[in-house]
Design goal:
alpha/beta, 27% strand, 22% helix, globular, eight-stranded parallel beta sheet, 14 helices, 613 residues
Length: 613
Amino acid sequence: MSKQKFELKLKEHSEQGNLYEVNVELPLSTGWIDNLQIILETKNKRIVKEIKYDKIENDTIYFKNDLYLETQALYKYYFTCLVEGRRVNFKNKQITKEYEITNEEMYKMSVNFETPEWTKGKLMYHIFVDRFNKGRKEKLKPMPRRTIHNKWDEEPIIGPDSNGIWNADFYGGDLKGIIDKLDYIYELGVTILYLSPIVTSQSNHRYDTADYENVDPYVGVNEDLKTLCKEAHKRNMKVVLDAVFNHTGNDSIYYNEFKTYGDSGAYNDPNCKYSKFYRKNNNQFDFWWGMRNLPVCNGDSKEWCDYILAEGGIIDKWFNLGIDGLRLDVADELTDKFIEGIRIAVKRNKKDGFILGEVWKDVMGMDREYIRSGKGMDSIMNYFFMDALIRYYKDGDVHKLKDTIKNFEVNYPNDILNSSMLFTSTHDISRAINIIKCDDFNKNGEWRWNLYNESLDYCKNYKLEDRKKAKDLYKAYISMIMFMPGILSIFYGDEIGMEGMGNLANRKPYPWGKEDKELLDFFKVLGNIKKNEKILADADLKILEINNDYILFERNKNDEKIVVGVNRTGDVKIINKQEENELQLFSLNESNSKKLNPHGAFVIKKTKNTTHK
């Protein structure tokens, strides 16, 4: 059966759902067609809608009907009909007979769900604010339960300080310091800044909020955030702020265990205005993972929701200072309803505001609606894709990478894939150059960056023995992940190969004036290719060849292609599939589309008049 046409045309739009006109054209050459239906499936629902006969013209039969679909991030669908009494299914513009359609064979569509264009395929720079750069000249003023470093190049405290307090040593990295380095970040090809939490908090990481309404004194003042956003926007950069809404600190205005903020607070007064902010069991406060410095907030509390989500609330205050998006800390521990409220608040401030969730698992495979509904987060930190990429590069695990990519192709909206956050490393894991080079990570662990030995002394004292070898391995790995679909986030200092085993030793101050210039130049070249090659925003991913030795993949859109080859071994590899008339954008270790030298890579561009053999 040929010359079939299937079209879903938008007729009416609303926030709750859309009305479509479904038009189908089929040839009558194989017989009379009857009982045409569209079958749509979501995680929890199956919709069957008959498409009515309309007319016959020139041996073509036409069907038409209206179809209302509720807002949803992903529908899978296909068409089915009877041809002379035989069941025929139409999937991906092909026909099959008398067997059930698989998930892989269905069409995909989203209703009222798309991620902001400025996120897709971009380069992000992740800043752990206290350790990036200090802009102020004056010394930090002492504050309770804080240790201040005298020099920028001092080693951080790994473990508890002399008073038994963790994560309480400060260097004074601030917003002015980031502003001073915006041109440096821009030269990397970065278009998105992602800041670790900056509001007043107990610790240097600031995931234990003390006051949502004010920037931490060591970071600056609220006006500094406004200035940073203005300066970033002048350079066509967006600003995403880490938002911690699952819990607060115990030393906070809201809980106030130590009476730092007077005699009120939920810990001291069950009748105070903040008491209903917190979740309780049997009249006892809940604490995140049992950590008594992190009381858990109640996402079902009207008082808490109003404080964060209502007009004039915390999200509005932050967006009024100029930010463009939020990264939701431990997003899968927030309620679906609360996340939907975050979306409403973000989108009323900026229609293209971005909501990125910290979710470590396969989000579309989880029994949650915070993305599937189309009414919650825009995208995720893509830990499980990164795990597959690391396992391939370190171990030659072809199967997990193939399965992970197929899972994305079948079960995820394309917009999520194109705006999901890949990363060199993050504040929660070891530094990228350590992960790639060292053998001290558990191959059989849940995540390929899990350490065999997580003792504080081991992490504090670890040093790479062969940095040159590490850099060779690292550059080839970066050449691979740079061109995979999604945002690539560079954790501050990964562009110069900063080292750090474990999630405390990975947070050293950026060594200004002592950069690895060779590695920095390498990142600049790749980052600006990613920035300038526009198809990388949303081009399809196709694996051309993958084996234990090298990967060859293509990003294609319309008549344009970017082809990437990466050698994960120390041997020369000859490429069987060769390119003609290509434009070479990048070569690592003098590699090209015919030969990959040891730990080599290439990036080439093809246009309409070239073909892949």
